[in-house]
Amino acid sequence: MQDKLTQIESEALPKVAASGSLSALREIELEYLGRKGQITQILRNISQVAPADRKVVGQGANRIRQAVESGIAERRAALEEAEVQKQLSDPGFDVTRPGIHPGRGSQHPLTQVFRQLESIFSSMGFEILDGPEVETDYYNFQALNIPEHHPARDMQDTFYVESGQVLRTHTSPVQIRAMKERQPPLRVVAPGRVFRYEVTDASHENTFHQIEGLMVDRNVSVANLTGVLQHMLREVFEREVRVRLRPGYFPFVEPGFELEFGCVFCEGSGCKVCKQGGWIELLGCGLVHPNVLRESGVDPEEFTGFAFGMGVERLAMMKYGINDIRYFMSGDLRFLRQF
Ligand code: FA5
User: Fold this and answer.
1) Is the CA virtual torsion 218, 222, 225, 231 positive or negative?
2) At residue 52, does pLDDT exceed 90?
């Protein structure tokens, strides 16, 4: 073993010094230091050396390994430098030519809108909550005052999973979870993905996003609801936008409203995005129904609350002037690169 080491010591460094290219150097590195390299093998089989010689052989092998390693590192730096110099001295090499820019990604427009909404609502003291996408019938419907066989179930066409659970059709189940887990006063928003068994068109997807809002306290009124929504819209659009509130039916609020936008694509004259109506529905809202408060353990005699559920794609469409909701999930880079 000792003889072998002496032989390696006398051979390896001259070979390193004589190597003429990076690939030749790599070969030498593998020959001595690779997994099956000569020095590696000696160190690995040190247990086979007679105990009396083991220390000397071990120390010797380590010393030679370090010497070879640093010799290779030095030679590699010299070869790389020589390569750079060679390229620079090539008359065809243009140092002023721009480098290759690595492609830079950007956030998906929906992510940008979500981040903005989260920051707006946080600044108004709302907490951000999450909820499951696969929900129980209880949270998605029953606790929201939609018992089995209630006609309101047909308002949202539902995907059922084999276990009998549903893909949540809205973010409203998080209202119930929030009220059951917390005590009023509370202010929460719950952004997330929802699913509906629907035919898609320019303003409808079968998988889309909502952000749910809920505030429960003493004396919460419709004025609080409209104040919060107006502030949110002003912040998102950085200007006043044309909206209207009209009565809307949702079993879990009373009274209930729908907030609509004046269509930015046709300025109200009618187009495919607003289905010729001139207005686009952005959100449903209202004061939380006493049955829902009671079911969630909140006393409706003491507390009132408002809730809303907003379509985030619809908001992003208006903000960025996107005239077809299907672009968001298309994965089309020509679309995504614009954000
Ligand atoms: C709801 O989902 C209620 N949970 C909203 C609510 C919450 C009402 C709290 C009262 C209190 P609706 O089905 O209308 O309601 O959907 C709410 C919003 O989601 C719509 O205003 C719209 O902006 C968006 N939306 C609904 N269906 C689709 C769809 N297929 N594609 C894209 N966006 C949709």
Assistant:
1) negative
2) no
Q: Domains in the chain: how many in total?
A: 2
Kindly give the distance from the C-alpha atom of residue 121 to the centroid of ligand 1, in angstroms, as a whole number: 19
Residue 200: give its domain's CATH number. Answer: 3.30.930.10
Rounded to two decimals, the pTM is: 0.73
DSSP SS3 for 133: coil
How many angstroms separate the CA atoms of 191 and 189, rounded? 6
93 CA from centroid of ligand 1 (Å): 60
* Confidence band of 105 (pLDDT split at 50, 70, 90): confident
Is the per-residue pLDDT at 26 higher than 90? yes
d(CA 159, CA 206): 10
Domain span including residue 12? 2-89
Out of 89, 124, 141, a domain closes at: 89
Question: Is residue 212 within 8 Å of 140, Cβ to Cβ?
Answer: no
83 and 229 fall within a common domain:
no
215 Cα–ligand 1 center, Å: 18
Give me the pLDDT at residue 135, please: 97
Ligand 1 binding pocket, CB closer than 6 Å: 156, 170, 172, 196, 198, 204-205, 208, 210, 250, 253, 256, 281-286, 307-309, 311, 313-314, 325
pLDDT at 39: 92
